[in-house]
User: What shape does this take?
Amino acid sequence: MTESHVLAGKFRRKGEKAVSRRRGPGRPVGDREAKRTELLEAAISVIAQDGFAGASVRKVAERAGCSTGAVTYYFANREEMMAAVIESQFDVFDAMLRRSDTGDDGKIDIRGGLKRWLDSLSTEGEGEWVANFQLLSLARHEPALAAVYQRRYARYREVFAAMIVKGQRQGTIRKDIPADLLADQISAMGDGWMMLFPIEPERFQPSRVKALLDATMALIAPRTR
Assistant: This one.
């Protein structure tokens, strides 16, 4: 064996040891984004079942079938994990809102957005909404979580208000009420439906959902003289 082969072997073994050290215990391999999503889903499930007080890193790890080290690789502590859950929920809300920006006719689609929101209440697992209520209630006493809600709600309302301005210019939404107030009112209706759906699902049958959407669109339609 030549000296160059010996040196190459040493460098290769050294590199392998370095990779091993960098990976470390608890660090995941494979699709990291998929694993992070899996951990967030496990956290939502635990919160819905045991509440925030029972949602420890250990329980989330057990629900996800991994080590606590794998959880702390993504989230430094439980509070950071809860904040990430809130962020993930708003990511879903934002995606639904963006789909409403342009309907089939090229105009903003408020009705379609509200319909997708109501459909999501019936198709998503109950645990997501229960977890959302838990975290929203907790945020009253946890400034860090409250800050996440405030920041994401503010961004949501800003985007929604801009869409309503667009609808006002298109002539599909009334102009006598400022867009930011309409965004607040419509968002409040959607939040109210979200709160009531798990408790009174019978009030959200297809015929009544259609009536709710008809009434909402009548409220924001341009005023006729």
About this structure: The chain has two domains: 26-76, 83-225. The radius of gyration is 24 Å.
